[in-house]
Specification:
The complex is a heterodimer of chains A (420) and B (236). By secondary structure, chain A is α/β, with parallel strands linked by helices. Chain A has helices at residues 5-18, 23-26, 39-52, 73-78, 91-95, 161-171, 193-208, 226-236, 284-289, 328-347, 397-419; strands spanning 31-35, 57-61, 66-68, 87-89, 100-102, 106-110, 115-118, 123-125, 128-131, 135-137, 178-182, 213-217, 241-244, 253-256, 261-264, 267-270, 273-276, 280-282, 297-298, 312-314, 319-320, 355-365, 368-378, 383-390. In chain A, helix 3 (39-52) crosses helix 11 (397-419). Chain A has two domains: 5-136 and 280-351, FAD/NAD(P)-binding domain; 140-276, FAD/NAD(P)-binding domain. In chain B, 45% of the residues lie in helices and 0% in strands. Chain B contains twelve helices and no strands. Chain B has helices at residues 2-14, 16-22, 29-35, 76-83, 90-98, 100-103, 117-128, 153-156, 162-172, 193-204, 211-218, 222-233. The radius of gyration of chain B is 19 Å and the shape is elongated. The chains are: A alpha/beta (420), B mainly alpha (236). Chain A binds chain B through residues 47, 51, 329, 332-333, 336, 340, 350, 352, 355, 357, 359, 371, 373-375, 377, 386-389, 405-410, 412-414, 416-417, and chain B through 163-164, 166-168, 170-171, 173-179, 181-185, 211-212, 214-216, 218-219.
């Protein structure tokens, strides 16, 4: 804990008055404020509250009362999950863990006063701040598209109403119609996510609208689990999916939401549904706090502390940390390291070496699951990959089914790890 | 008796290689059902089994010796063994069936023993049908035999640090549900410590096949595995 001079003097006085009392005990209960109730924030809040046994006062600021996980939202589009199975409330975190859950927007951070101001008025003081705001979209990334166009051309890259809208639009496509996706450039949330979505859209269209076509416009030459997805697309959805990579203008795209047209390097295509997933950056509260460099917030892997302000820890998609992908699993993993480090700093609890891991499962078709994962450790420069694995092409059906079932178990595990 | 039991356990730990050679992975339940006639004069097992001369044997795996309620004919010897920590597992049943009085001096069980390891494995496999614990971890005790990896006694002797184990376990609980539910990914709560240690080393040495677990275990030190085992062994 970094003590300013005044706090330190006060604590020293109190400690000398009672002689044996440890310094941390002489202060008021330390306060941690967590901004953002997604995977990183919910996990951090729960672990801080659970493991500190009341020695830390934890506040979680999150505007929505119901959280929809982005992971498995593609399975909702494909018809494998109900939307309400992806919905989670913050009731347990408040009732069982004593977390002060505030449903409001954090609209400003005063790093000198160490307060977070709320849209509804007032400011919440902190000793340590955890920012886990997820992503926002880079303005102007796809000419012709901005968030006002998200009803005509949904991104569906924050789960909930956008996901529902995209699914309804797919269901309303004319027979033999065309679905387009504009995939984002690196780095972005959930590297296999766009390609799992293509798989799930294809699965849905294959049974409901089998002559429909899918156009995938991609600025990247390569993508996550590419061999696995392409093998699966050939096997399950032959002739349905066309991918336009950067060789053919996939990185030079603009849209017209009013006419549902996509301009790919000068060639205009009219489509029935257009899923625009723009380039991404850290959630804007990071910018407001002044802790970003470029589009992301750089952090130390040892503690997930901001490189700019050691009283702020940043988690998940918003960070620039090194080798970990932007995923819910990563955010959950980082939250536990941050929680351990924060407790160590504020209450003197034991501190252990940072360890991280990630696994991303993707569903290609019914019972055809694949996965990729890695372990990581903290170096002074970054979070560095230690070891990894990926599903193989040509795996038998039983293994792919087991992999999918594993992902269902993981979903239950991680959501219970976040929300109690 | 407790000295003899400890000696047996030490022998079991250190002579695992021998056990691997002369013990079948799991017995044949059909043969075991046939051999059961040697036991059926005194014991019942299965639906509606009742205490007779000897206690009924449903759910015997994982049960402390001399712990069947309502059975009143236990010898002092077997009661003392139970109080000393004798719990029925593959290994302890195997030793008891081989020579009851060698394991439990003063036992009332008037049975000269089964000398053939296969016979014992088959009877134990038959008994295993009527024990449903542990459900979630088929490889774990009491039927986990032979041992998957040979571990030096000093590795098995490491006393885990449960506080470190709790921190490390947070990584496990992203996938393994903390309430012990078991869908798609097995539950790991309440896993007997030694079996946990053996299983992690088996993943680490890539004897167990799962790629995620191989990766997760590969970077755990012997102390970290012991710490995790200490933590999970204490969870309900």
């Amino acid at each position: 804990m970094k003590l300013n001079r005044r706090t330190f003097l006060g604590a020293a006085t109190a400690a000398s008055a009672t002689l044996a009392a440890p310094m941390v005990k002489a202060q008021a209960t330390p306060r941690v404020v967590v901004v953002g109730g997604g995977t990183g924030g919910a996990t951090a809040a729960r672990y801080l509250a659970k493991d500190s046994n009341g020695e830390i006062d934890v506040t979680l600021i999150e505007p929505t009362r119901t959280y929809y996980t982005c992971y498995f939202s593609n399975l909702y589009i494909g018809g494998f999950r109900e939307l309400n199975s992806l919905a989670h409330s913050y009731g347990n975190l408040a009732a069982e863990y004593g977390i002060n859950v505030v449903h409001d927007w954090a609209v400003g951070i005063d790093r000198d006063a160490k307060t977070v101001s709320l849209a509804g008025g007032g400011a919440v003081p902190y000793d340590r701040l955890v920012l886990s705001p997820g992503i926002d979209f880079v303005e102007g990334a796809i000419p012709g598209w901005d968030v006002k166009a998200q009803n005509a051309m949904p991104h569906a890259y924050k789960a909930g109403s956008q996901t529902e809208l995209l699914k309804r639009q797919i269901e309303a496509m004319p027979e033999g119609g065309r679905f387009a996706m504009i995939a984002p450039p690196n780095p972005y949330r959930c590297p296999p996510g766009p390609y799992e979505r293509i798989s799930m859209v294809a699965h849905k269209l294959k049974s409901e609208n089998p002559t429909a076509k899918i156009l995938l416009i991609d600025p990247k030459a390569k993508f996550s689990k590419q061999a696995l997805f392409e093998e699966g697309w050939n096997r399950h959805y032959a002739g349905m999916i066309e991918r336009v990579g950067p060789d053919f203008g996939g990185a030079n795209v603009s849209v017209n939401p009013a006419t549902m047209e996509v301009d790919i390097d000068g060639t205009v295509e009219k489509v029935d549904v257009c899923n625009v997933i723009p380039a991404q950056k850290a959630g804007r509260i990071c910018d407001m706090a002044g802790i970003t460099e470029g589009n992301w917030a750089p952090v130390s892997g040892h503690t997930m502390q901001s490189r700019v302000d050691e009283n702020i820890h940043v988690l998940g998609d918003a960070t620039n940390q090194g080798d970990m992908p932007k995923s819910g699993f990563s955010a959950n993993s980082q939250a536990k390291v941050a929680s351990m480090a924060i407790r160590g700093a504020l209450t003197g609890s034991r501190v252990f070496p940072a360890k991280f891991s990630n696994t991303c499962w993707s569903l290609i078709d019914t019972n055809d699951g694949v996965k990729v994962g890695a372990t990581y450790e903290a170096t002074d420069e970054k979070i560095a990959k230690v070891d990894g694995f990926i599903s193989q092409t040509g795996e038998d059906a039983a293994l792919r089914k087991a992999t999918f079932e594993e992902s269902v178990g993981w979903y239950a595990g991680i959501t219970s790890d976040m929300f109690g | 008796m407790s000295v003899r039991l400890s000696a047996l356990i030490v022998a079991a730990l250190t002579s695992a290689a021998a056990a691997q050679e002369d013990t079948a992975p799991l017995g044949d339940t059909d043969r075991g059902a046939d051999l059961w006639r040697l036991c059926a004069g005194c014991h019942q097992v299965g639906e509606g089994a009742k205490n007779r001369v000897g206690p009924q044997l449903n759910g015997v795996f994982g049960r402390k010796a001399a712990a069947v309620e309502d059975f009143t004919r236990y010898s002092e010897g077997i009661q003392r063994a139970g109080n000393d920590g004798l719990v029925w597992s593959f290994r302890t049943l195997d030793a008891y069936l081989e020579n009851p009085k060698a394991l439990v001096s003063g036992t009332n069980m008037g049975f000269r023993g089964l000398k053939d390891p296969q016979d014992r494995a088959d009877v134990i496999a038959y008994l295993r049908i009527y024990s449903d614990n542990p459900q979630n971890i088929p490889e774990s005790a009491p039927t986990a035999v032979p041992r998957e990896v040979e571990l030096a006694p000093e590795i098995l002797a490491i006393v885990g640090d449960p506080a470190y184990g709790e921190y490390l376990s947070s990584e496990c609980q992203t996938c393994h549900q903390r309430d012990g539910d078991n869908d798609g990914i097995p539950a790991i709560n309440n896993w007997p410590e030694e079996d946990f240690v053996i299983a992690m080393h088996a993943y680490k040495e890539k004897i167990r096949p799962h790629p995620v677990m191989q990766m997760m275990a590969s970077r755990l030190t012997d102390e970290e595995i012991a710490a995790l085992a200490a933590y999970f062994g204490g969870l309900d």
